[in-house]
Structure formats: structure tokens, C-alpha cells
Design a protein that fits this description.
It is built from 5 helices and 4 strands. With 120 residues, the protein is of the alpha+beta class. The protein has a single domain (2-112), classed as Alpha-Beta Plaits, CATH 3.30.70.20. The structure holds iron/sulfur cluster (2 copies).
């Protein structure tokens, strides 16, 4: 489940809000998104994948929240790992990280109701 948005890293672009298939996150005018409905989180990692600033931590437990310490997570090296491992953005073209996540993207877009008609 999503556990943290690191305020210092977040640029308030709201990409995570837009991509979340279950509307877990809420826009806060003038601020960073809020984890508004954590119990609706599907642990799909899409918000981590789409966050260009590696400001989100999603824990592995999909059944219940596991509160984490911000400093421990910052020191862990886990932030951005999912995006890197899928070869996104600056990792595109690095042969160590092949992007297979495109296979899931339309599934989540369809769940979100955001896919253009006829493309899923
Ligand atoms: S892990 Fe998936 S369901 Fe959970 S907040 Fe992120 S995008 Fe939404
Ligand atoms: S995608 Fe990342 S930087 Fe953008 S609002 Fe969400 S947490 Fe902040």
C-alpha cells in the first residue's frame, strides 16, 4: 500500500493523482497530494512509476498499511527503484532495465476510465 509522499521531493505535478486507478490520492490546491483513501490502494505501484521525482513509497503489503519512517525510506535506496527497474525516463535505453510495464498500462488506464475510446 502507498505509505508516504516525501514532501521535500514532491513537485506537486499531480501525475500520481491522475494515474491512480482507484483514486487513492487527492489534489490539494497549492500543496502536495494527500493520501486520502489508503484503504483503496491496490499496491499497483503506478504512482511510483509515474512520479518523476521519486517522491512516493509504496510498501509491499497489499492487505494492510505498514507505517514507515521517512528517514529510513530515504536512506533505503528504495525510492525510484520501481521506475528504474522498468527502464523509464532516464533509464530508457539502459540494457539492464527493460521496460515491460507497458503491458500493464492499458489495464490500469481502462480501470481508471482514462483510455481513449477504441484503444483498449
Ligand atoms: S499503488 Fe496504485 S492504487 Fe495505490 S496509490 Fe499508487 S497508483 Fe494508487
Ligand atoms: S507524481 Fe510525484 S512529484 Fe508529482 S505530485 Fe505525485 S508525488 Fe509529487
Amino acid at each position: 500500500m502507498i505509505e508516504l509522499i516525501i514532501e521535500d521531493r514532491c513537485a506537486a505535478c499531480n501525475k500520481c493523482v491522475e494515474i491512480c486507478p482507484t483514486n487513492v490520492l487527492a489534489i490539494v490546491p497549492g500543496g502536495i497530494p494527500r493520501i486520502a483513501r489508503q484503504d483503496e490502494c491496490e499496491t499497483c505501484y503506478m504512482c511510483e512509476l509515474y512520479c518523476p521525482h521519486d517522491a512516493i513509497y509504496v510498501g509491499p503489503d497489499c492487505e494492510r498499511p505498514e507505517p514507515v519512517d521517512k528517514d529510513v525510506i530515504l536512506a533505503s535506496g528504495l525510492l525510484g527503484e520501481f521506475r528504474r527497474n522498468h527502464g523509464w525516463d532516464e533509464w530508457a535505453g539502459d540494457p539492464r532495465y527493460t521496460n515491460e510495464h507497458w503491458q500493464m498500462e492499458n489495464v490500469f488506464l481502462r480501470a481508471r476510465g482514462a483510455a481513449p475510446a477504441g484503444q483498449v
